[in-house]
Design brief:
Rossmann fold; 2 domains; elongated; alpha/beta
């Protein structure tokens, strides 16, 4: 069962549960953003938890529910999971904006043939201002689509967002209110080269073929030129492989299945 009203990444988790329901038939799969209460279910529960950006839900999450076997959550830091009862999974991608639902992602176009050098559309949080300033300066040299907004999901309509990302060579992915961000998954799923800040030691970031920087002050003309003059199509092949194996609905479902089987 999916708590559709509270999740903007419903499509992602529907894809995960479609796989799980075929293999974990002896469990009830509960996807929710409500870490305070859970529905009554016929079978023991596997909980997929979203919405806890601030890490309010502790490691004793759902301890009052003896029928909860395991919890998989996103918005992860090392304090928020124990790999015994609570396990980290990627945040997924946003599927709705301005009352519209996404059609699909568009990773097909060969990256060397894409229109935009760099793409950023998003809320201008305090720690993102150096990125926005850098993009403004770099736009004098590169074809950059930059659309700073005042709030979450206030930019492009959702399908235009994914079409633009699918016509972009490089997507910059700053932290949001947490280290895990939709944009990171969306950019990888769209076949973009990704530039982002350092990530925690989580299984789904291991060996990610992305460019890490310490601060957005490192986003210079030379930095971008080095990427844009490299073998972009090989980079695209690597990022597509990484998305399929680590971030996709099937990859996450397989991780959950393997974790459950190892506990039996």
């Amino acid at each position: 069962m999916v708590d559709r009203d509270n999740l903007c990444e419903t499509n992602y988790f529907n894809g995960i549960t479609d796989v799980l329901n075929n293999y974990l038939t002896e469990y009830s799969i509960v996807v929710t953003a409500n870490y305070n209460t859970l529905p009554v279910t016929k079978y023991k529960k596997i909980v997929i938890l979203g919405g806890d950006e601030g890490g309010v839900a502790g490691l004793n999450l759902y301890s009052q529910y003896p029928d909860v076997v395991v919890v998989f959550r996103f918005y992860n830091t090392i304090e928020r999971y124990d790999n015994k009862y609570i396990f980290p999974i990627p945040i997924g991608y946003n599927c709705r904006s301005n009352g519209e639902i996404m059609v699909k992602m568009y990773p097909e176009k060969k990256i060397s043939d894409r229109k935009y050098d760099v793409f950023y559309s998003g809320q201008v949080l305090e720690w993102r201002k150096p990125l926005v300033d850098a993009l403004e300066q770099l736009s004098k040299t590169f074809n950059i689509y930059s659309q700073p907004t005042s709030g979450f999901r206030q930019g492009l309509c959702i399908d235009d967002y994914y079409k633009t990302m699918g016509d972009t060579k490089i997507c910059v992915c700053p932290d949001g209110t947490a280290v895990d961000t939709f944009r990171f998954v969306e950019a990888c799923g769209s076949g973009c080269v990704v530039i982002t800040t350092l990530k925690p030691d989580l299984w789904y970031y291991h060996n990610a073929p992305v460019y890490y920087i310490n601060s957005w002050g490192e986003l210079t003309r030379q930095f971008l030129e080095n990427i844009l003059t490299s073998d972009l199509d090989t980079l695209q092949t690597n990022i597509n492989k990484y998305y399929t194996e680590c971030l996709s609905e099937e990859a996450v479902a397989n991780y959950i299945i393997e974790t459950i089987r190892s506990k039996q």
